[in-house]
Write a structure and sequence with these properties.
Elements (H helix, E strand, L loop, with lengths): L4 E7 L9 E3 L41 E4 L9 E4 L2 E4 L1 H10 L5 E8 L5 E9 L3 E2 L10 E2 L4 E2 L6 E2 L1 H4 L4 E4 L6 E4 H9 L5 E8 L1
Parallel strand pairs: 3-6, 8-12, 11-14
Antiparallel strand pairs: 1-13, 1-14, 2-3, 4-5, 5-7, 6-7, 9-10, 12-13
Helix pairs in contact: 1-3
Length: 202
Amino acid sequence: MSHCSVWAIGFDEVAGYHIERDYLDGDVDKIEYVDTTPDPGINPLFEPGDLYAGRPVKPDFVPTRMVWKNKEVPPYDFFRGRGLIVVSDAFKETVERHEPGVHQFFPIEVMSEDGQKIGQVYFFNICNRLDSVDPNNSTAKKGKLLWDTLSGKMVFSKSVIGERHAWVDKYASSGRFLSNAVKEDVVSAGLTGIMLHAYSLM
């Protein structure tokens, strides 16, 4: 794909099977947003625990320790843990190189099942909330709330996205997106655990 693409984020279990992981503290269901001003789209009321609405969250109840239950396969650079996107230092550095100081990265200590520290990862909270699908160039139809990706092609608006490199689209079911610049760096670095699906950008 050319530079005229954006990339929806997905997850890849590199090991070929699900590796159990869980948090040793915190409470994901109680994580609250800093700003709860209503806004149409995904999670319009910004309710606690309903994450990835594209706004900063408070640190209270964010996990700080987790267990990774596999000795042979180390934690991926990008994985999901009970609704949170969890990323490595390498992924964090990639995003912050392109968009410094915008998104939240809460450190989480990774432990083995026998209690040994095996690394550090981060809860990655995306802090851009956009209406970034271009209705004039898209053939997909919009339902009462979300774009129906099965009804046609979604095309994204370069003018709306601007210089942003990670964002939540508040009307897209695929939800979370990266710029082509971040995608290229992720691929070049060989970061593990992330799946990416391209959409056109105009």
